[in-house]
Write a structure and sequence with these properties.
The chain has helices at residues 13-19, 23-30, 41-47, 52-64, 77-106, 112-147, 157-162, 169-181, 186-248, 254-264, 269-276, 280-294, 299-308. It has 319 residues and is mostly helical. The protein starts with 12 loop residues before the first helix and ends in an 11-residue tail after the last helix.
Amino acid sequence: MKNLKMYEPSDKMISLIKDDYNLLQALGSFGINLGFGDKTVAETCQMNNVDTYTFLAVVNFIINGSAKHEDDELIDVRTLLHYLDASHTYFLDYQLPSIRRQLAETFDEKDSLGHLIMKFYDGYAREIQRHMRYEEKTLFPYVEALLEGRQANNYNVETFSKHHESTDKALRELKLMIIKYLPSDAHRNNKLTATLYDIYNNEEWLKLHAEVEDKIFVPAVRRLETETKQNDVTKNISTMVFKGGADNSESLSDREKDVIVALVQGMSNKEIADHLCISTNTVITHRRNIARKLQIHSPAGLTIYAIVNGLVDISSVKL
């Protein structure tokens, strides 16, 4: 039965490990070093430059299966990204090779069934590696781009979410094959038991890893995508209305600036023509050029542009 305690920043870090030793691997993936003594979770995270809130979101999810943080805007995506990337390294560089060594030590070279199981395991390991490398080459760089404020047009987290494969099925099959079909004797039974124990642990680890991605990471990336899109819209509006004129203000002629001021003051084309002693057709031509150069077509946009660029004083504008 799951421990229903929700851990807080003020809890001792050692208490978490005592309650669930499986968190040792999570500590390593977060980049938290051992030797934290009696420090609290907050103190330990701060000492290791880890976002405490995000750390506890993952820890509480791993221990309790709590989805409390699924839509939590305080989750730090960069911390999650580092955690998932480091988890991949741990699994691919340590866990998979470790289990393979244990299997190899258990089977005799002349054991045809053992040889087939080794082949099965190697195929499984390649599939896991393919899956995780895909995330590292596609999903993780995409998220890094979002964190830098860039939106990729040819990818989104929904693409990943829809094709997020379950990677624990083959491991479960391997476990059952060993239990059901592999003949053992007293000499290798202990080795097989130890190997099975690790396989069971890794089966659970893979399941939790996938759930952290689906329940915490993917929703956090969705929010990041939304924020990036909103920032892009704001930036485009800002560029169009405020910077568009500023960047192109040198290309505006003095006469065009005069036309803008007159427009802001509410004059019609004929009134502008009379005021500037030019023809109405010339006013229309100036207005076309202004719209083309500034990419601003509305009177409100021109008013904002004129105020921002000092062509008129805001006190003289009828709002």
